[in-house]
Amino acid sequence: MPILRVKDLSIGFGHHKAVDGISFEIAAGETLALVGESGSGKSATSLALLRLLPPEASVGGKILFSIRDEADSGAAVDLLQLPESAMRRRRGSDLAMIFQEPMTALNPVMRVGAQIAEAIRAHRPGLSAQTVNAAVLDAMREVALPEPERRVRDYPHQFSGGQRQRILIAMAVVNRPRLLIADEPTTALDVTVQAQILDLLKQLRRTHGLSILFISHDLAVVAQIADRVAVMQHGHIVEQAATADLFRNPRHPYTRRLLASAPTMSTDRAQPLASLAEA
After folding, report:
1. What is the DSSP string of 94-157?
2. Residues 6+ away with beta carbon under 8 Å from 138
3. How far apart are alpha carbons 224 and 143 in whole angstroms?
4. pLDDT tens digits along 204-238
5. Cα separation, 220 vs 222, whole angstroms
6. What is the pTM of this model?
7. Which of 33, 30, 50, 34 is nearest to 42 (CA)?
8. Which helix (H) or strand (E) element contains residue 236?
9. Which of 165, 48, 154, 37 lies closest to 102 in space, CA to CA?
10. Contact 241, 222 (CB under 8 A)
11. How far apart are CA 86 and CA 264, in angstroms?
């Protein structure tokens, strides 16, 4: 039973349609990668799932999510039809997001422990201060931040880029969501730190049975983490396949160009890379 089913999702900004009737689903414990060039509609899709698009955006279709209380019966709610108060309760508890750019996503004047604690109190306001503090330290340990007892009172600028990304991941998973949306979570990191963050996400997925929507333009990263891949072009999903099948036998011309545009160890350096422009 899918934990998330997106049916005919469309997103418009005035006369411009950023996403045009896409459909996909994510099973429990599965990682689906949404890939495509900049402007293809990936991030707009992720923000629509959490109802975080600006008021001027028009959104149509259905976003069916299996809610925690009734998941065993297969019951699902359409997130687009929920009142904002009900959506606020789901956002951060049942669905959570790791935003782009760890350098800027954290509040620079707020201690990191307080930011993680804020995510806990938003959904569990009755917890004592002692319980919240213990949960903050546990979250920091789970994402392998060094010396959490000492660093819980540090500010974001006192951490490296990779450590800041770990803090964002801790904030996203501290309430044990069922679906984690990771929007370009490794973009600003060097390749060594990228690998560490990917390993961390895989570990959290195994430990907590997370489903993940992984949004990226980096096909090398996608190959390491995704079970299936959905390829977006100009607001449409043009191809969906198991990761190994898509890399081995891409069927859509745009997917073939996308794969050919990324250099590999076997790329002929005497030849130009493929262009994403229409042939």
Report:
1. TEEEE-S-HHHHS-TTS-HHHHHHHHHHHH-TT--HHHHHHHHHHHHHHTT-S-HHHHTT--GG
2. none
3. 19
4. 999 999 999 999 988 888 999 999 999 999 999 99
5. 5
6. 0.90
7. 34
8. strand 236-242
9. 165
10. no
11. 46
Range list of H helices, 174-270: 191-208, 219-225, 243-248, 253-260
DSSP 91: B
Provide long-range contacts, Cβ within 8 A and 24+ apart, for 248-251: none
Helix axes 161-173, 112-123, angle to 10 degrees: 20
Task: Return the SS3 of 11.
Answer: strand
The structure tokens listed for 176 are 């044990």
Tell me the residue type at 237: I
Distance of CA 49 to the CA centre of its chain: 10
The counts of H helices and E strands in the chain are: 11, 10
Q: Tell me which DSSP letter residue 82 carries.
A: S
Confidence of residue 279 (pLDDT cuts 50, 70, 90): very low
Q: Contact, 210 vs 204, CB < 8 A?
A: yes
**In this predicted model, what pLDDT tens digit does every residue of 112-133 receive, in sequence order?**
999 999 999 999 999 999 999 9
Q: In sequence order, what are the beta bridge partners of 114?
A: none
Residues 6+ apart with CB under 8 A from 23: 5, 6, 7, 8, 9, 237
